[in-house]
Amino acid sequence: MPQNVDESTVIRRVAREGLLIAGGGRATVLQNAHPLIAKGTAAHSRFAARPLSRLHNTLTYMYAVVFGTEAQAQRISQAVATMHRRVAGPGYSADEPALQVWVAATLYDTAMILYDAVLGPLPEADADACYQQYSVLATALGCPRSAWPASRSEFFRYWNDMITGLRPSDTSREIAHALLFPANVPFTLRPAVPVNRFITIGLLPAPIREGLGCSWTPRQDRLLRRGLQLTARLYPHLPHALRQAPKNGYLRSLEKRTTPARP
């Protein structure tokens, strides 16, 4: 069972920042760049009809485990674990520790890229603590703690090996296209689609981007870096209530879902 994450943990200082939502597309595309995860996504979800559902479910799970009460974290983790037991087929299973580690790794790496770029790198001790705490996103689902790389240096080796060794499948490319060019998006969110696509493709590691067939030019790269620099000047001055609005909204929704109805 997952343990409720303490208020003082570094992961809470990082994961509370709404700017991390901008990396949701990157993490999701990276997860499905793994051919076995792509197999499960294609066989057990309606990713083309509901392109935002995986991101929504991931955020619900993350906020529940990191910020929710112990009861909320356990309830959501159990629900996700139950769903994962049904996601299995020839050569793949969502309960496979290596796949659970990869999913958590994409969330950790994406969070660190955006946090470092906009709010600055964490002090070394905090960075080490935050890394260890991010393992909860895998272990809350039953993944053994020993499967998570033991240190940040081991994680960097693991990450580089995965990025250079992964060979996205045709299904991976199909899913990436559906996420980058979604067909069913609420009208109010449509103006954000090109921005999300630009950020997602730009933040992907080059080998994965190339493996998925996504084009990216030096001019686009300069534009993305300038955008991150501008965000770094403006975002830290926003009110904390605004910066934490996504997290607070998910927690309010979670409380409604997990509070027993009164007779």
Give me a quick take on this structure:
The protein has 263 residues and is an all-alpha fold.
Count of the domains = 1
Q: Could you tell me the mean pLDDT? A: 92
Distance between the termini: 29 Å
- Share in β-strands: under 5%
Query: What's the alpha carbon Rg, rounded to whole Å?
Result: 18 Å
Largest sheet data? 2 strands, antiparallel
Count of DSSP strands: 2
Which structural class should the secondary elements be placed in? Answer: mainly alpha
Oligomeric state of this protein: single chain
Q: Number of DSSP helices? A: 15
Shape: globular
Taken in chain order, the helices and strands follow as: HHHHHEEHHHHHHHHHH
The largest beta-sheet arranges its strands as: 1-2
Helix content: 55-70%
- Are there runs of 5+ residues with pLDDT below 50, and where? none
Describe the overall structure:
The protein is mainly alpha-helical. The chain has 15 helices and two strands. The protein has a two-stranded antiparallel sheet. Strand 1 and strand 2 (92-93) form a beta hairpin. Helix 2 runs antiparallel to helix 6 (97-119), helix 2 packs across helix 11 and helix 4 (53-67) packs across helix 15. It starts with 9 loop residues before the first helix and ends in a 5-residue tail after the last helix.
